[in-house]
Amino acid sequence: MLLAAVIAVDTEHDEVDPTPARRTRPARGRDSPVKRYGPRAAVTALALAAILAVWFPLQGDTSIRESQIEVADGDLRAALADAEDAANAQPYAAGPKIQQAIVLELQGEIPEAVDAARSATHKEASNWRNWITLSRLEARAGNAEGAVRALRRARQLNPRPLGGAA
Question: Are 102 and 133 spatial neighbours (Cβ–Cβ below 8 Å)?
Fold first, then answer.
């Protein structure tokens, strides 16, 4: 819609003399291409940047939701593929890595799940839920020290009881 508005906007402002005898239009060839098309190009570039800024997070969130549905349906291979797609769409985000960790855990790939959970804690170190996931996976991997360390970090970030009671 914004792109259509940009295309429809006339960037040339013809000045017309209000006296009836001298009412003429200026020659179109006098304006430089930058002056004629610059504002349209700038607004178009901004609109495209806005679309891309929304597209990647939306794509990542959609892939995470699809992965969660596939986990519920028992299709762990597709769930992992969608979690990886989400991580590719949002390489800066922890959510796709946590989803990967959960799917890998369900597949019995505990070392890989721990790696994914660690990556999530690096990407979003202030989210206590990431540390809880890492703690559980470290415990499943037999790394008691790592599990306790991750649990302590989760408690630092969220001092409320972690068992669900508030």
Answer: yes
Q: For residues 79 and 101, what is the distance between their CA atoms, to the nearest angstrom?
A: 11
Say which CATH number the domain at 114 has: 1.25.40.10
Between CA 166 and CA 153 the distance in angstroms is 18
pLDDT tens-digit readout, 128-141: 999 999 999 999 99
What is the per-residue pLDDT across 33-80, written as a single tens digit (0 to 9) for each? 777 788 888 888 888 877 777 666 767 889 999 999 999 999 999 999
**Cβ neighbours for 102, distance < 8 A, ≥ 6 positions apart:** 71, 113, 133
Q: What is the pTM of this model?
A: 0.67
Does residue 67 lie in a domain region? Answer: yes
Q: In the predicted model, what is the mean pLDDT of residues 156-166? A: 72
Residue with tokens 């597949």: 107
Residue with the two structure tokens 């430089």: 32
Domain interval for residue 131: 39-157
Is 25 part of a structural domain of the chain? no
Sign of the four-CA dihedral 73, 75, 76, 80: negative
Task: Write down how long the chain is.
Answer: 166
Residue 60 burial by CB count (10 A; 0-12/13-18/19+): exposed, middle or buried? buried
